[in-house]
Amino acid sequence: MRHNTTKLAALLLAAACFAPPAFAQPKAKAKPAAAKTGSFSLPYEKFTLENGLQVVLHEDHSDPIVAFATVVHVGSNREKPGKTGFAHFFEHMSFNDSENTPVGANRKLIEEWGGQRNGGTWSDGTQYYEVVPKDAFDKIMWIDSDRLGYMIKTVTTDALAREIQVVKNEKRQNYDNVAYGSVNEVMRKNLYPADHPYNWTVIGSLPDLQAATLPDVQEFYHQYYGPNNATLVIAGDINMAETKAKVQRWFGEIKKGPAVPALKPRPAGLTQTKSLYMEDNFARLPQLQMVFPSIQEYHRDTYALQVLSELLAGNRTSPLYKVIVEEQKLAPGVLAYQNSSELAGEFTLQVRANPNTSLQQVHSAIEEGLKRFETQGFSDTELARIRAKIETDLYSGVESVLSKALQMGRDNEFAGDPAYLAKDAQMAQAVTRADVMRVYNQYLKGKPYVMTSVVPKGQQNLVVQGAQLATVYQEKVVAGVQNEDVGQGKEAVFEKTVTKNDRSEPGFLQTPLFKMPAIWNASLANGLKVYGIDNREIPLVTFDVTIPGGHSLDPLAKAGTASLVAQMLTQGTASKTPAQLEEAIDLLGASISVNSTAEEIRVQARCLARNFAPTLALVQEMLLQPRWDAAEFARLKSSLATNLKGQEANAAVLGSQNFNRLLYGPNHILSYPTTGTLATTAGITLEDLKAYYNTNISPSGAAVHVVGAIDQNTVATALKPLETSWAAKPVRLAQQTLPAQTLGGNVYFIDVPEAKQSVLYIGRLALRGTDPDLTKATFANTLLGAGSSGRLTQLLRIQKGYTYGAYSAVQEQQEMAPFVVSTSVRANATGASLQLIRDLLTNYGPTFSPADVETAKSKIMKGNTLAYESQGAKLGILRRISKFNKSPKFLEDDQQQLMKMSVADFQATIGKYMAEKDLVYVVVGDKATQYEEVKKFANGKLTLLDATGKPVN
User: Fold this and answer.
1) Res. 906: pLDDT tops 70
2) For the ranges 118-132, 207-221, 279-293, 696-710, which has the lowest average pLDDT?
3) Is residue 304 pLDDT above 80, yes or no?
4) Which residues are bridge partners to 296 per DSSP?
5) Concatenated DSSP letters for 159-171?
6) H-run or E-run covering 875
């Protein structure tokens, strides 16, 4: 489950059962209300059950899928000191068992039905959601309502103990084992008084989590999880009348809970500035953060504060960027953002500086930038730029049925209006110059704030003068697992709640089959291929220009060249400075990025449909008329060095990079990260970038992919200038030699001192994207590690509580790509986790059964109905067609191939590409406590590597 502190929220419900209440019916023949903005609307119907559950329905027949989203009005702001993290912990517990569903159904069956499910907790609420093929509609009604009303009797002491370990693993992985992970905790404890509901983090503290008891869980459920404290949204391919009846049948008997008094807004009340510092074991760069108390969510000032954040640091002309990045060259960038919650808000300024940079100097630069804003102000053009961005973001935020359900659920529960989206847009667009300056003076100018200086261990000299040491709880890593060893435990014994309606599992409805969208294609005179999908669900267009080569054409000694070329293409054009280009893009409400991947350089854009032609014209200008500005190149080189330095203690990055080095060997470009290393990028010059560009950027072999509210003729007209201006030239795609794969069975260890978790990468080079077996291998991996229903997560998380998640994948690229298993496990469970993974992989093929074949087929076939809903996913279809020369119906062809696969086919594929004996093991963790455990697992054949992959004697 994601720990969601930014709160795009929605889901679940609550309580117990008994008499079947009736609907509070809407007026006869009333038209559905709608949230509107421009020509876009979200029609809905809303009603309330007698038990208080608010229900919002939204019809969307674009795809045969349905999304369920429930927002429960309880977050960490309802917790008690000493029991922090409990709202989030209860979210985890809710995904365990319920009275009328099979054990593990919540975590396993939904994905096997082809669906997706998750949850999230933030300061003010908790969300639960599923999106499924429409044939599982009744099943989700059953599972959702049972979780809401009938789960508490199934909670056992053993289940509680296991989930405590899972949540602790989540905290270690996302907060304790990463750089700057404690900043939010320090900020909250110093910004808010001890008795304020925002004084603690949503994830809570490890000691508090460990102390959670079964009575705590029961009390929390009965107090807050009543249906009268929640909103349920159902969106997608539904029939309104039938859905109302089914909501009544499944949710109507749930017993109403106690009233939950509303919390009133409570500002932070900070009276003086506080300056604190921390030495961070995982940080390699100094970071300064300043947090000013602001205002609660839905208050009119939040919109002006959001605009203010864009004006202060949102682009190259903003004063903080000009002073900190361009003039004083203290950091690669600067962030400013407004975050509002139910009770209060925070306005944050953040700078992650270059290595060895004094944060005192950064602080002075921020103050200078703020003074410049006061004296110079901002132009009407800048306001227009921000308003255009708001419109595009609005549509992007409701692209999928799930995003619509989450937005409507959150707005209904917290603003009392599922149509608040329209009001939200109007309020943002209505912000004036006077509003911006008023909130600046009211919340920032001369006001107290909490400032945190985070510096690498041993670099206390970099902190802001006068800063006081912050205290943060640090868990000690202890060798052995006996102190936290948990297991599945016995199932709960209880008497089922009596209900009027039968709560046994309903059957599937008619199975929807995935059908490829209509795809058009064309070839331009210069060799450029064009592929498109006309998709009218939202008035946006997403498109790209994909050029083969990318990182694969980098010289070994200068790995990272293509990445720098991609970045330079965004740094202005021959006729536009970087700031002018950025402004031109923003005024269209567009976004344009250029990235280098392992095998291509890609220019990707998203814009309002009406602005496709001018956005494409800017893409063409960037692609064909680069500015090659020496000052911008120097800035990018400095920024890259800063970012690469910042990754040096990131265990996940170290694991991934060294795994690739071992598989591809020292003479293959894919053994280097696409961004290069400090060593390979140091000598790259601007002339190197120009040489790469002149040699490799060509329409020959390139493709344009377009998805959105636009037809082929309009695209063709807009592409005419690119067709005539971009001359073709041959590009030689180098064939690199792969080393002999002789490392199978070898185990490697990389030391990150004091790591709270161990990162594991396990795998081998398997297949190329053109190999006909790739589809079979992808299918064969489905039950192993594709999602939380996979055996890896079920074993390591659900049964053992060793990890937050464990996954496996078969990658797709032109070069031979890996099959890889990856996870991050509790440090003192490293040895045990390795052995469990080895046993699972050893037995996966031989034990694959006829029942497994049917489960895999169901999961894949039904999952396809919702896997390609968004514009980005549809763009991915087009990219695969152009890159691998696939049929426009290739996904339907794959489905036919899947249906023909037998047990023998699955077992043969697993044995050929996933055999345990052929896999390389990479472990990144705390050598002092875990090396000997890993050595036992490796039977003494363990190689210690440094961070760059060199053996350590």
Assistant:
1) yes
2) 207-221
3) yes
4) none
5) HHHHHHHHHHHHH
6) helix 871-884
520-531 per-position pLDDT tens digit: 999 999 999 999
CB 664 within 8 A of CB 671: yes
Mean pLDDT of the chain: 92
Contact 142, 152 (CB under 8 A): no
CA gap 665, 815 in Å, rounded = 14
Q: Give pLDDT, residue 6.
A: 34
85, amino acid identity: G
Q: Quick check: 801 and 169 in contact, CB under 8 A?
A: yes
- Buried b / exposed e over 12-34, threshold 16 CB at 10 Å, is bbbbbbeebbeeeeeeeeeeebe
Pair 49, 55: CB distance under 8 Å:
yes
For residues 914 and 841, the answer to whether their CB atoms sit within 8 Å is yes
| Rounded Cα gap, residues 55 and 26, in angstroms | 12
Q: Which two tokens stand for residue 664?
A: 């591809």
pLDDT for position 159? 86
Alpha carbon distance 224, 165 (integer Å): 24
Residue 676: exposure state from Cβ atoms within 10 A (0-12, 13-18, ≥19): buried
Q: What does the pLDDT look like over 926-936, one tens digit per residue?
A: 999 999 999 99
- Residue 735: the pLDDT is 83
Which residues lie below 8 Å from residue 29, measured CB to CB, with a gap of 6+? none
- For helices 301-313 and 433-443, the axis angle rounded to 10 degrees is 90
d(CA 872, CA 848): 34
Q: Edge to edge, what strands does the sheet with 747-751 contain?
A: 803-810, 817-826, 757-767, 920-925, 747-751, 942-945
List b or e across 495-530, with b for residues whose CB sees 16 or more CB atoms inside 10 angstroms.
eebebeeebeebeeeeebebebeebeeeebebbbbb
What pLDDT score does 1 carry?
36
- DSSP tag of 909: H
What confidence tier does 36 reach under pLDDT thresholds 50, 70, 90? low
| Alpha helices (H) along 240-295 | 240-251
Residue 191: which of 299, 327, 289 has the closest Cα?
289
At residue 126, φ and ψ (nearest 5 deg) are: -135, 140
Question: pLDDT category, 480, cuts 50, 70, 90?
Answer: low
d(CA 54, CA 304): 31
Distances from the Cα of 536 to the Cα of 237, 378, 485, 529, angstroms: 16, 36, 52, 23
Residue length, the chain?
953
Q: Give which of 661, 678, 681 is closest to 669, Cα–Cα.
A: 661
Q: Where do the DSSP E strands lie in 496-611?
A: 520-523, 529-534, 540-548, 591-596, 600-608
Q: Which whole-number Å values give the CA distances from 491 to 104, 149, 268, 898, in the listed order?
A: 11, 19, 45, 36
| Strand positions, DSSP E, 86-195 | 116-121, 126-133
Q: What is the pLDDT of residue 455?
A: 98
Sequence-distant (6+) residues with CB within 8 A of 121 are 1, 3, 4, 75, 76, 87, 88, 91, 127, 202
Do 658 and 949 touch, CB atoms closer than 8 A? yes
Residue 7 has pLDDT above 70, yes or no: no
Q: How does residue 26 score in pLDDT terms, banded at 50, 70 and 90?
A: very low
Predicted pLDDT of residue 492: 83
Task: Tell me the two tokens of residue 408.
Answer: 């409507």
Cβ 544 vs Cβ 878: under 8 Å: no
Q: What is the DSSP string of 392-405?
A: HHHHHTT-SHHHHH
pLDDT over 70 (residue 9) = no
Single-letter code of the amino acid located at 46: K
Cα 84 off chain centre by:
24
User: At CA 277, angle to CA 273 and CA 278, rounded to 5?
Assistant: 150
The per-residue pLDDT for 485 is 67
